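Sample intake sheet
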Amino acid sequence: MTISFNAERTDTEVLNEYTDNEDFSFSKTHVPVNLASYEHDQLVSRSAAKRLLKRFDKFKEVWLDFAGVEKIGQAFADEIFRVFATTNPDIKLVYTNANKQVISMIKRASGKMET
């Protein structure tokens, strides 16, 4: 971990980013998806998705950051964006830094493919 002594963000700004404005609970999290790759395996399986999903149920909003992820498999996307999303409708899943291939798999899994 590296902490910059020249950071311009304040601790209040960081806390506000990850807390709920209504009850001030720590209800949001940012998850770098590339960390789910165990020993450089591909993010293609349901088991890889389930490893990533651990403890998501503790939050109201989960930001999935796909920076550095070139592709994901259909089963991986389905487990997160259909199975988990359907069984946890009160948890908002947000994704960022996804390339076209990853976005395509997410849309396919969540049933949001354009016709």
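Comment: Strands lie at 28-32, 61-65, 92-96. The chain has a mean pLDDT of 86.
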